[in-house]
Design goal:
This protein has 9 helices and 11 strands. By secondary structure, the chain is an alpha/beta fold. The protein has 2 domains: about 30 residues; about 200 residues, TIM Barrel. The strands form 3 sheets. Strands 2, 3, 4, 7, 8 and 9 form a 6-stranded parallel β-sheet that branches. It has a 3-stranded mixed β-sheet with strand order 1-11-10, with no helix packed on it. Strand 2, helix 2 and strand 3 form a beta-alpha-beta unit. The longest helix has 30 residues. It is globular.
């Protein structure tokens, strides 16, 4: 009877531990807007940057179409804002004239992969091929090397982040998601961004969001009135002697 009682206690304890782990995973999922995959020690992208100077960055992922891209560029030019554009290879090759426009306007360009695949499911050779081909496609048009990478769907694992790092690429996420791909109204997009920004924030938008261009003047004017300064991501992040905390916030110093 004593042995049976001990076994029952172990079963109850194990069930409680499993339940706690499940709740912890659910809480982690609820805390993040994007899909992330961690195992063991974390190799994290840069979600935001610890800064006290109110510098922030706005970025645009380019994968589908160009219907609203010209308007976005006009708003950025009018406001004197330089942004960062992450381009998929097939978009780059389909719209080279826009790659040139974006580059010549002084914006920064990073890779968003070659095929917009689920790169956390790829092996090292496949990851290397995606990043090499996409970076070369951009460099062929702009004549500039690529230093930034944003993973499609916001999905990553240790292998992806580590492989990109070996290739000299900084993997960049975001801490402010506009959700413009959901066709939110301009006021809804602006409200989401303005309410979540802090010094060192990286804002995620899309070049072909239905109301993204319309929201831009509101976002820029409101955040500038709050004392924020827009810079490309490459001028926001630290290039060396930094750490990344468990939330993905990059900090100066080791």
């Amino acid at each position: 009877m004593r042995l049976l009682t001990i076994r029952i206690r172990y079963v109850v304890m194990a069930a409680a531990l499993l339940a706690a782990a499940a709740l912890g995973c659910a809480a982690a999922d609820a805390a993040g807007a994007e899909a992330v995959y961690w195992s063991g020690a974390r190799s994290l992208p840069i979600y935001s940057v610890e800064r006290s100077d109110n510098k922030i960055a706005i970025s645009f992922d380019c994968a589908w179409g160009t219907d609203h891209t010209q308007e976005i560029l006009e708003h950025l030019a009018s406001a004197g804002v330089r942004a960062t554009f992450f381009m998929v290879q097939f978009w780059t090759e389909k719209y080279p004239e826009y790659v040139r426009k974006i580059d010549e306007a002084g914006h920064e360009i990073g890779t968003h992969s070659a095929t917009h695949s689920h790169m956390a499911a790829l092996n090292e050779q496949e990851i290397t091929a995606e990043l090499t081909a996409s970076s070369e496609a951009i460099a062929k048009i702009t004549g500039k090397s690529v230093e930034l990478f944003r993973a499609p769907f916001g999905e990553y694992d240790n292998l992806l982040v580590d492989t990109a790092k070996v290739m000299g690429l900084y993997t960049v996420q975001w801490d402010v998601d506009s959700l413009d791909w959901k066709d939110l109204s301009a006021s809804e997009i602006a409200s989401r961004i303005v309410s979540k920004v802090r010094s060192g924030s990286i804002i995620l938008c899309h070049n072909n969001g239905l109301h993204t261009a319309e929201a831009l003047p509101i976002v820029i004017d409101t955040l500038r009135a709050k004392g924020y300064e827009f810079v490309p991501i490459g001028e926001l992040i630290y290039r060396d002697n930094y750490t990344i905390d468990p939330t993905g916030r990059q900090r100066a110093g080791s």
